[in-house]
Design a protein that fits this description.
Length: 512
């Protein structure tokens, strides 16, 4: 499903003196450096999304949906270092870690406490996510066309659009997960390239050679800790990426020709799983620096106050933070308060229940009945293609024995499947909980489109299959773009007539 030449054959290989067999070299060699065409494409698709999101960003000027919490809490962090109750001048009890609110606070620090200030960081991190996924797609698919398609589809998705223009935590959660994913892909390339270099020197792959510091692996672990510092749901990606590191190491050893590639990889893999968890934990604790540095944080002196001690013991800050987490965990696991926009995980890919962020019927539109709405709704044609894409991805993963397909599927499901365990308890959940999965769902679509187009190395550029596949893929992207344009008024809160608004309620009462 790739397009273009995978790697260049060295002069030594051409001359027949290469110590590394050609098939091993092809399996271990990376895609190389980004091309100028790639950078032009990446800048274009990211720029399109950025311009769309900056237009009228400050509208509406009042907080929408949960901005009423997070924009205020971000401002509290700037003033006190912790969340604060201005009514009685006491620390505020909150149930999410502080990093996402610190990121919102950066925009407020730069532009003030206003709608533009508390939303601008969501725009920037959302578009950074688009760029990173475009880069990761190029490394996975080795195709500028498919990488640009992935980036453009995210830029033109309604849920990504709305959340990257709102001061909620989920955009920042998605950003750090995608950062970790990008470093995971880079780590895979780095380790395989080092194996290739060792083989070129005549090293024995069964001697467990030293591959050097895994900088990208460490960066991946740090990013995972930062993701957990936004929301705890990132923990599932910590587990998944630790497993992926083990699988990647096994695959690299096998490709290098090691006879005991499983048994040689397991001890090191277990060690790295522990290291990734440890690095992520230390990074996560660092996101609480404001709480540690303050005497005013909620539960900051819980143990000393509960036991009548005059001051904290040396270990008490960690004890107090652990108690804080126990209480927050109880809140999350017992949250069952009803909400008009709540939904179940099985509904998310079907767009069964979007979330109303803003609604106003007193706006001018030149008609007797008007409406202005910001509806958190994925671009329908894109989201309704996710389930077929996942089915096709699973089939291709088995048929092609392609680790990339398995990785993309695992990352997509890690953002959705864990929420099913909360359904028996009737925990209150919302559609935007699926946002971390969306970049990987888009990668699944891009992978399948690549299969429809056909691999360039097996087909002539002017072959009928490639021509027909390109037309199908291009038509799909154009339809998604047209669908986004049609729903844009209810993504951005434009003033439209009630008739125009109602015509976009395709699923009737499910979307109202």
């Amino acid at each position: 499903m790739t397009s273009g030449v995978l790697t260049e054959t060295s002069k030594a290989e051409t001359a027949g003196t290469d110590p590394v067999p050609g098939i091993v070299r092809r399996r271990l060699a990376g895609p190389g450096r980004f091309t100028p065409h790639f950078w032009l494409t990446a800048i274009l698709v990211t720029g399109i999304g950025l311009v769309l999101r900056l237009v009228n960003l400050a509208h509406p000027k009042e907080p929408i949906f949960d901005e009423v919490y997070y924009a205020n809490e971000a401002w509290d962090l700037l003033q006190h270092g912790v969340e604060w109750n201005p009514e009685d001048n006491t620390p505020q009890y909150v149930v999410h870690p502080p990093l996402g609110k610190w990121m919102i606070a950066l925009g407020e620090q730069l532009f003030g406490y206003n709608s533009f200030g508390w939303r601008i960081m969501a725009v920037l991190t959302g578009m950074a996510t688009v760029l990173l996924i475009t880069m990761a797609a190029w490394r996975l698919f080795r195709s500028t066309i498919l990488a640009g398609t992935a980036g453009l589809l995210i830029s033109l998705d309604g849920m990504h659009f709305v959340l990257s223009r709102a001061a909620l935590l989920d955009t920042f959660l998605m950003f750090w997960i995608v950062v970790a994913f990008h470093f995971l892909v880079l780590d895979r390339e780095q380790r395989r390239t080092r194996w290739l270099h060792l083989l070129e020197t005549g090293a024995d792959p069964d001697r467990r050679p030293t591959l050097g510091p895994p900088y990208h692996r460490i960066a991946c672990a740090v990013a995972l800790g930062l993701a957990c510092g936004v929301k705890w749901s990132a923990l599932w990606y910590v587990i998944l990426f630790a497993i992926a590191v083990l699988v990647f190491d096994m695959s690299a050893r096998r490709s290098a020709g090691a006879r005991h590639w499983i048994t040689d990889s397991i001890p090191e893999g277990i060690g790295w799983a522990a290291a990734i968890a440890g690095i992520a934990l230390l990074t996560y604790l660092g996101t609480w620096w404001g709480w540690f540095a303050s005497d005013d944080g909620y539960f900051r002196h819980w143990y000393a106050e509960t036991n009548g001690l005059p001051h904290d013991r040396l270990i008490d800050p960690l004890v107090n933070l652990w108690h804080y987490h126990q209480e927050a965990y109880k809140f999350h696991t017992t949250l069952d308060k009803g909400h008009p926009s709540q939904s179940w995980p099985w509904q998310w890919l079907l767009l069964g229940r979007p979330v109303v962020f803003h609604w106003n019927t007193t706006v001018p539109c030149g008609a007797s009945s008007c409406a202005s709405e910001i509806l958190l709704l994925g671009t329908p044609l894109l989201w309704w293609s996710f389930l077929p894409a996942l089915v096709a991805l699973g089939w291709l993963a088995v048929a092609r024995r392609d680790g990339r397909a398995w990785l993309i599927m695992a990352c997509a499901l890690a953002g959705i499947l864990p929420w099913f365990q909360n359904m028996p308890e009737h925990r209150t959940m919302f559609y935007f909980y699926a946002l971390p999965a969306e970049p990987f769902l888009v990668l699944a679509v891009a992978y399948v489109l690549g299969a429809v187009i056909g691999p360039a190395r097996h087909l002539r550029p002017d072959s009928d299959q490639r021509l027909v596949g390109s037309i199908i893929a291009g038509a799909y992207v154009l339809l998604v773009a047209a669908c986004f344009a049609y729903f844009y008024p209810i993504y951005s809160g434009m003033d439209i007539t009630y008739t125009e608004w109602f015509s976009r309620m395709w699923l009737g009462s499910r979307w109202i």
